[in-house]
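User: I'm writing a short methods note and want a consistent example. For glutathione transferase, I'll paste the sequence; you return only the structure tokens, no commentary, since I'll be parsing the reply automatically.
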Amino acid sequence: MGTVEIEMEPPSASLTYFELPGLAEPIRWLLAYGKIKYVENPISFHIWGAYKGTTPAGQLPILKIHGKVLHQSMAISRYLGNILDLAGKTPLENWEIDAAVDTVTDLRLKIVACSMEQDPVNKVFLTDALRNEFLPEFLGNLDNQARINNGHLALNKMTWADIVFAATDYFLNDVYTKTFPGELLTGYSNLIKIVTRVKKIPAIKKWLETKST
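Assistant:
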């Protein structure tokens, strides 16, 4: 599937989030895919308390686009998936994409919860359960799902779920490697193929190269 470019006067969109990848990263990758010009509005943690009351739900990220203020990261990603022709054509197809994205969210929440645990005893318990029980089964099932879908998470083709997954892996792998040796997707070849394919999309590849400079 080729990149769909949305013609917009620069910059007609802005993305507000903390000074880190986090929940805004899938949105950035989708904006890059669509070549949608936008400006970043980074919020530091020390001013967040004062800024929080100005947001729709007391949360970030926020995407301002087409005169609207959008919030909730996956709802924003779903919106971008729709306007970029990365969504399904029927309610059932969209369910399949949504289910895949919800599965990726479950993965993120488990790893982040483990990394943020402060109690040493609980940390050991959560780390052991994550590494030896949850991840092998969870990633094994997700890898099989990618195999069945010919290297995609849904519909046997590129959807916004693939881009969300690749972007989530991009920042989640850093969280994972601070607790465990090796990379998160080591041994899961079908999931690695998704990430590799997404990173090779010309618009995303160009954006990542610019981001790293």
